[in-house]
Amino acid sequence: MEDSESDEIEINDTDATIDSLERIIGEASDTVDYQASTLGNIDDNAVRIYRANILLISVVVGAISIAVRNDGVEIGYLININSAFGALSLVTSIAFAGVTYTSSDIDIGVRKEDIKDTLSEDYVIDELYRELALGYAKWISDNEKVLERNGDLMAYTVISAVNGIAFLTIGVITTGAIQTQVHDFLWLPLVIIDLLLLIIAIKIALVPDRSFQWYFGISFGVFILSTIIQVLPPIYKIRNYILDIWLQINAGFRFDLSVFIITSLIMTGVSYHIFNLDY
Questions:
Q1: What does the pLDDT average to over 261-265?
Q2: Do 107 and 168 fall within a single domain?
Q3: Mean pLDDT throughout 109-117?
Q4: What is the mean pLDDT of residues 184-211?
Q5: Number of domains in the chain
Q6: Are 176 and 122 in contact (CB under 8 A)?
Q7: What share of the chain is helix, strand, coil (3-state, %, to 5)?
Q8: Average pLDDT score, the chain
Q9: Which pLDDT tens digit goes with each residue over 138-160?
Q10: Domain stop point among 154, 180, 206
Q11: What confidence tier does 79 reach under pLDDT thresholds 50, 70, 90?
Q12: Which residue, of 180, 213, 228, is where some domain finishes?
């Protein structure tokens, strides 16, 4: 058997009976089996997401190719910030799924080397049980680290896939809005929504213990103060300069960027909750 770590029990530190060792070894064996089964489920889910992402990307690429070839649509009209980020998220999900599957390295019990060591050392029954119990303790500890790592990787895989689907969908809607000129009168409300969501996100991140009434009161005070300050000549010139730059930007891009910010803020909250789910 492999040597135990310094923080693990030593063989000579216990006077456990053979019956006790047999029972704890049986429980430990069940634990290792459960760990192996859990890791197998994680790997199966990673492979399913991997295949689904590959299929989705193939469908998207095929649809774009058909639209460009048959309808004469310029590919530039189909690509925007949201759709590009969605495609990147799907590729990232594929990468995480691959790493999740290939990094699975779990101890499932007695190995060939352990059997050879036992035969060469000529253990008596109580020594063998004690060595085996220590072996299971180490295997369970090592497996916990593998499961924790793969659980995080699985969460990243799911988060990337969900973000990919969401941003691709929003990208398609954004393209349609730009093509139908709807964005001409929607970009300003979207900017306002962006600011509100940004305020909520800052509140949750920086002062989660404070009530929303307190935070919005502070935010309103800051808004009034900043409005008053804007009448000062230096601030007024800077504000107008920034506003002029913003208005010179293509209206379609402004709309696309506003939608991207809204979607990003929403999906950040969704991703946080997904990461804190149990797998």
A1: 84
A2: yes
A3: 66
A4: 65
A5: 2
A6: no
A7: 85, 0, 15
A8: 76
A9: 888 888 888 889 989 999 999 99
A10: 180
A11: confident
A12: 180
Note whether 55 and 152 are within 8 A (CB). Answer: no
Which pair of structure tokens corresponds to residue 236? 């007024």
Say if residues 277 and 209 touch (Cβ distance below 8 Å). no
Domain membership of residue 220 as a residue range: 182-279
Percent of the chain whose predicted confidence (pLDDT) is above 90 = 14
Residues 196 and 128 in one domain: no
Residues 89, 161 contacting (CB under 8 angstroms): yes
**Cα 255 from Cα 84, distance rounded (Å):** 15
Together in a domain, 213 and 107: no
Burial 260-278 (b: 16+ CB within 10 A, else e): bbbbbbebeeebeebeeee
Counted residue by residue, the chain has a size of 279
184, 253 in Cβ contact below 8 A?
no
Residue type (1 letter), 166: A
Residue 278 tokens read as 């149990």
Residue 233 pLDDT > 60, yes or no?
yes
Q: How far apart are CA 17 and CA 20, in angstroms?
A: 5
d(CA 108, CA 111): 8
Looking at the predicted structure, is the pLDDT value of residue 42 above 60? yes
